[in-house]
Design a protein that fits this description.
Blueprint lengths: L2 H16 L1 H7 L5 H23 L2 H23 L18 E2 L3 E3 L8 H4 L4 E3 L2 E4 L9 E4 L4 H19 L1
Antiparallel strand pairs: 1-2, 2-3, 3-4, 4-5
Helix pairs in contact: 1-3, 4-6
Length: about 170
């Protein structure tokens, strides 16, 4: 399930929960027990969706910010100039971004090119991550599964690939 589908489901469930008394009043009294059970079930589903969507947010954001920081250091060492205006983790317009054999990162794209609109901002292995304007804002995983362990592996592999460039 992608982030848009998750958001749509959360909204739909929220609407039903907000109006549950109204919907209950429309039902035949014989069905209210089933309706109450239904409401309990969708409340649990909503709670699970919200938890899952925020579960690794802080860990993922910290990892991406560490990669961003190290990339800035490497680019300074290579070019001897501040990378702030070209930083693909920020709202710089740098759609070319940075790419090596381990990961790639591109700034948020403002244009109309369909291919670029749907390109993830960050990709490592089969994990694709997007954000709105800058890393951390509207951050969500488009594709791939992340756990604490895979985030740790991602961070280590990305940092190691940057160390090799800097050596």
């Amino acid at each position: 399930m992608n982030e848009q589908e998750r958001t749509d489901i959360e909204r739909a469930i929220g609407l039903v929960l907000d109006k549950k008394d109204y919907y209950r009043s429309l039902l035949d009294p014989d069905f209210t027990d089933n309706f109450d059970e239904f409401i309990q079930r969708i409340s649990k589903i909503k709670d699970k969706l919200v938890f899952e969507s925020n579960r690794f947010y802080d860990t993922l954001l910290a990892a991406l910010e560490k990669i961003e920081s190290q990339l800035s250091v490497v680019m300074w060492n290579i070019n001897q100039r501040d990378y702030e205006n070209d930083n693909p983790f920020r709202n710089t317009g740098n759609i070319e971004g940075f790419k090596n054999n381990v990961f790639e990162v591109h700034a948020y794209y403002w244009g109309d090119d369909e291919e670029l609109i749907h390109r993830p901002n960050f990709q490592w292995r089969n994990v694709k991550i997007s954000w709105y304007k800058h890393v951390g804002r509207g951050l969500f995983v488009i594709e791939g599964e992340l756990t604490e362990k895979t985030i740790s592996i991602m961070l280590e592999e990305c940092l190691e690939s940057l160390r090799k460039i800097d050596d």
